[in-house]
Each structure stands twice: as structure tokens, then as C-alpha cells.
Amino acid sequence: MAPRHNSSPRRDWSEVQEREYYEHECRKFRICIIGKAGVGKTTLLSKVFGIDEHEAGVVRQEDAVRRGGGQHNIYDAIVDENRNSALVIHDSCGFETGEDNNLSLVQSFIEYRSAKPSLQEQLHCIWYCISLVDPRQLHEAERELFRFLREKEIPLVFVLTKYDAFVGEKLREAVEDMEEATADDWRNARVAAQEHIADLRGYLESTMGYGVKVQEVSKARKDERLVQKLAVETTAIVKPNLRIVWFRAQGVLAKQKRVACVEHFPQKILHSLIVSSALPLNPFRGVKLGDFFEDTFHHCLAVWNLPGQSVLFTKDYVQTMFREASQSYIRRTNLAAAVAPLGALDAPRFIKVGIQIVCDLIMIFQQLFWATPRRQKLSYGDLRRELDLYKGSGIRESIHRLVEGAVNYGSSFSVKKLVGVIRVVVDDGCKILHSEAVRSHKREEVRSFDEPPFAELPAQNA
């Protein structure tokens, strides 16, 4: 059970207790997005979180005094359990000259959230959106809000939107006909845009003074890396113990989720696997292995947070599909586990199967994560296709061989060592996946399994 507020002083907690507190106390990342209408907030929600603001539900806070607001009242929470069950959004319109009421509303909302005793109800981050193509990017009301935010120390990221359009503006300033612009013209336009952004970044960082982040973004597909950088910058500024919650919510970087899946793997689950495997004449060892699969499956569900999983993965047959893709021979292993008499002497045999399950599921969920953004929501057809691809690929066999070589009698009874094995095997599996993907593309074969973002995979050493 997770620690409560009234337990022993947090400064005396172990690292595991501290981590469990944040993982159980706060299941959703609460972010406030501030920016004028048309600044690009809807595009941001879609690209980073997979949220369609028009389809999402609104949870109204009836206990708060509310006035005014933009399209959404800032006190109301925007949620979409089907597309992203780890996220709560608060949306506010930006500020124009003389809009003191809206400034007061935003300040009151931040005060209201800051006073909440529960971590789940507090604000975890603010994205302040500024359009680069707005001729008057900052108003006096905004500068007043910045001074207010300095005192609150809520993680703050300035998101400079419409970078692609801003580069276009710089190009039009330099050439008469954009259709005749050369590669050098475009390069110079990007340099001019970056010089302006550097000046704006310097002003914002000096004004706030407590380590805010500033990141430009674009809706152009060629600038997708900028959206990924926004996720990285947000990670850097979010409080360390809340990063696991952020990893669940963001829908951009598989690497963050993959690492979180390993580093935050529940130690109690591994400890239970070790104990059940080591008991001699234990007729329930096979059952425990099945329980281990189910616990690992739910851990991956929580971390990867795939769009559509809250509906699709409630079906009983889905876990069976995952079992077949991961361990098609698990029934034989369960039977052997039930009759094995040697306890600790043959425990590594069954612990290896457990570690194979963990590594398989992390790799499968990673592939589903990559496949989902192209289809918005995971469907049964998508799921079946990706599971069949994994089951029939060489990746699964490579993963199993790596585990066979890494798990031995010396490592089988240490939770820390088993986590280390999972870390190494998953990383090596991604390197193998990278090599297979490169070879496949060189042969001009494109399958779903061979289309991961190469930048997220560690390349194998030559």
C-alpha cells in the first residue's frame, strides 16, 4: 500500500517509499495550457498527448467561483480517458491589453490549485503558448502574470508556436518571390528566426529567473523533432518525483516510456516471482508465473498508456493474445513448474521465463506505441497485426536468447540484478531492432514492424 500523508516524515522514507508515494498518490499529470485563441493549443494537445479537445469531456469544478474565461473555463478539467487516461488539462485563453478580468481569473485559479493538499489536485506544469507570428507577442498583462508566477515556482515552459510560419515570414522579408527562393535563402531565414527566438528566450529566462524552459514548435511534419524537444524540455523542468507521471501522459517519446517501464518496474512483483520459484514442491509455481504475467501486463498498460486501450484491453481474450505473442509455450512451462521438486536449485529456470515475459511485453508495447499515432486509436486489427509481427519476428527469439545468457544462479535471487538484466536485454533488443529495420529499408521493404523512429533506437556499435 502506498504511504499516506499522515505517515512517518517523508525525509525518513527510503527511495522505494518515496517513489511509491508519487506513483500511487498521483495517477494523472495535471497541466495548464495558456494562450490566445488560434495560437495552436489544439495542435499541441493532439501532437504531444493524442487528445482531440473537441471530443474530450469536461469535468466542471462546481465548488470554485468562476468568471469569464475563454472557450474553456480554466477551472474546468479537460479529460479523455480513452485517448489518454494519465492526463488532466486546464485551458485558458491568453491576454489582450486591458483584459484584467482574465488575468485575475488565471491568478485565482493558480492560487486555488496551489492550495490543494492532494498532489493529484495540484498543478504539475504550465505551458504558456506564444505565437511567433503575433506582431505583439507580449502584453503588459502577460508580464504581470510572469511576475506572479515567479513566486509560485510551478514548472513553466514557454511554447513558441508557429515556427514554420515564422520562418516563412523571415523568408518573405528577404526575397520577393518565395517560389524562387533557394536553399541558401531558406537557411538564412531559419538563422534569422533562431536569432529572434534567442533574444526572446533570453528575455523570458531573465524575467522568470528560476530555470524556465523555452521551446519553439511547428505543426509541419518536417519539424516533428521540435515537438519531441518540447517533451524533453518539459521532462527537465518537471519535479523529479513526478516524472513517472509525465512519462505516462506524454505520447511523443517511446524512449521515456521504455526507460520508465524498466526503472519503475514494481520490485514487489519481482520479489514474489523469486520467492514462488524458490519454494520446493510448490504446486502453485505455475499459477504464480501466470500472476506475474498479469501484473507485468498491467504495469506496462499504466506506463505506455496507449490511445484506445481503456476500451480494447478490457476484453479477456486480449491478455491471451499477448501471452501467445510473448510465451506461446507458457502452458508447458506452467505444467513443469507444478511438478518441479528442487525449489531453489531449478528456480532460475522459471525466473528466466518471468524475465523473458517482462522484456517481451516492453518490446511489444513499444511497437504498439509506434503504430498507434498513425491510427489515433488502437483497434483490434492493429493489435492483432502487431502481435503477429512480433511473434513471427526474430526479435522475440533474440530477446529470449539474451535472457537465457544473462539470468543465472547468481543473478536469479537479487531484485536489483534482475532489473539490471531487464535494462540490458531491452536495450540490446532495441539495437537489434534498429539493425533489422535498417536492413529492411535498404531492401525497400516497408512493414509496420520495421518503421520505428530511428532516432529513438540506440544504434549497434560497428
UniProtKB/TrEMBL annotation:
Residues 30-162 form the G domain. It comes from the Eukaryota. It holds the Pfam family MMR_HSR1. InterPro entries: GTP-bd (IPR006073), P-loop_NTPase (IPR027417). GO terms for molecular function: GTP binding. This is G domain-containing protein.
